[in-house]
Specification:
Length: 415
Amino acid sequence: MAPYEPEQDTSEVGELRVGRRKAARYVVPVAVAGVAAATIGLVPALATSGDPDLPKVTAQELIEKITASDTQRLSGNVKISTDLGLPSMGGMAGGFAGAGGGADRGDGEGGGGSAADPKSKLMELASGTHTLRVAADGPDKQKVSVLEDAAEYSLIHNGDEVWAYDSASNEAYHAKGFQVSGDKGEAEPPKGVPATPKDFAEQALKAVDDTTSVKVDGTAQVAGRDAYRLVVEPKQSGSTVGRITVAVDAETGTPLKFTLTPASGGAAVIDAGFTKVDFGKPSASTFDFAPPKGAKVTEADEHAAEGRDFRDKAKDGKEFRDEDLNDLKVIGEGWTAIAELRLPGGQGLPTAGSGDVPPEAQKLLDSLGDQVNGKFGSGTVFSTRLINALVTDDGKVYAGAVTKDALVKAANAAH
């Protein structure tokens, strides 16, 4: 493999910031059923092979290439796996919803929820391996299908309409009007949820600052296309993030594969990549949808009203507000930043014994919890391979992509 440019000098960080902000404007507009932190462990032989001989580029030039990329049309398959070290979320999602009176359940009982509701479906992608079929034709037409063994879930945005369909339950979810949801319950398809390598890369580039190392580290082939490997690493110690690698298409500048490796080593926490990609215009019929005969159709505005009714009852008629996240502040900066806030009521975690937590949730908490002590008193650290959170017995929460020791140190310093 030919040598590439060394680590990006910090004097160029300002230009990198400008580059990644511009790059954010050119994200492939795929309306997704994705995960807050979706990932894949791609089989290397399937996704990547060989080291193509490409002209040398610097990290700055490669980011500029991403910036210049304006890929509005594509289709293909993306394989995604999540390895956060969490138990499988598929069965738990229903348990949590059931504990909430059924407002968001997909069984058609209680609150009349829909199995096709994207908000319910996202939970299932938080663990395991999934294959997505994606297509985009500009900002007004996108489709993502989650392919399962004997079923398929599709989310389609076409003009001012969004349809979601779950073939396993023969249920559909319909949102008319592509706008941000608010107090009036307007429909909104999921946004800010990454599902393609481009989505993940946009988030990673936002982290580029003087706490970050950025470099080009060789080449690769992804989905049969030549690509450069852009590597982003924290310079600070204490972060759970080891490195982020983005394979960037040499011709179009489109990210083809995204890998987040934890500082602890082992399998990738996030690794999302195309196994097949075509930059041609998808057929217009790709974005057409009509619910099959006999399908149960839930309208988004009706479902939003039901959800509000349930939330009002749960809060004794009081509405949750941002102020309920008391004293939210950020400790530190960069990759080791920690969010500090106080739980409503100023108390620690409720327990199943008090009747405030469903058994399914208690099992999850117990499986993740680790008791700790310090100047702050005592508390519980809930750990994943990427995000950790310390909840103290007096009701404070410290959370971030940092180690348990970093959380304890922050809690001690705050007392």
